[in-house]
Amino acid sequence: MLLSPVVAALKLIVTPGGAQEFRKVATAANFAAAREDLKQPPAVYVLPMNDAAGQNSLGGGAIIQPVIERFGVVLAVSNLRDASGVAAQVEFERLRRLVIDQLLGFVPGDGYEPCEYVGGSLLALDASVLWWQLVFRTGYMERNY
């Protein structure tokens, strides 16, 4: 799974003044690793999720099959101002939109399809951080002939 091009694309999200929007943009093996790594929000972590291969469309030992890869983009947004999460929700919605706009249609590498948004879900909300995962998918063809 090509995660480093996704990280590079997310690093291009900047404020109107030209500063990076996120204090940290990185990969993580899973949510627990991202949570442990977080020093200061807002941050975004790119996580591998899964891939699924379709059926081989050739025969006789030749192989060509589609592969769909899914990856998560985990947002960590500060929730210090408001225990109810309302302030974090406003900031989250703004950052969520920036990430989706940046990755929708993004091609992570040669032979890959443009990224599509699949959905999102709340991972955790505590007194200091709102964690949300956005899920994207892309695909390519696996070949051996």
List the helices and strands and how they pair.
Blueprint: H1 4-11, E1 24-27, H2 31-37, E2 43-53, E3 63-78, H3 86-103, E4 116-125, E5 129-144
Parallel strand pairs: 1-2
Antiparallel strand pairs: 2-3, 3-5, 4-5
Keywords, separated by commas or semicolons:
five-stranded mixed β-sheet; STM4215-like; 145 residues; elongated; 5 strands; alpha+beta
Helix % is 10-25%
**Per DSSP, what share of the residues sits in E-state strands of 2 or more residues?**
35-45%
Q: What's the level 1 CATH class?
A: Alpha Beta
The CATH topology label is: STM4215-like
- Biggest sheet, strands in spatial order? 1-2-3-5-4
What structural category characterises the helix and strand content? alpha+beta
Distance between the termini: 22 Å
Our Rg estimate from Cα atoms comes to: 17 Å
- Apparent shape: elongated
Please state the average pLDDT score: 90
Order of helices and strands: HEHEEHEE
Question: Biggest sheet: strands, sense, closure?
Answer: 5 strands, mixed
**SS summary, helix count:** 3
Low-pLDDT ranges = none
User: What would CATH call the homologous superfamily?
Assistant: Phage tail protein-like
Tally of DSSP β-strands: 5
CATH architecture: 2-Layer Sandwich
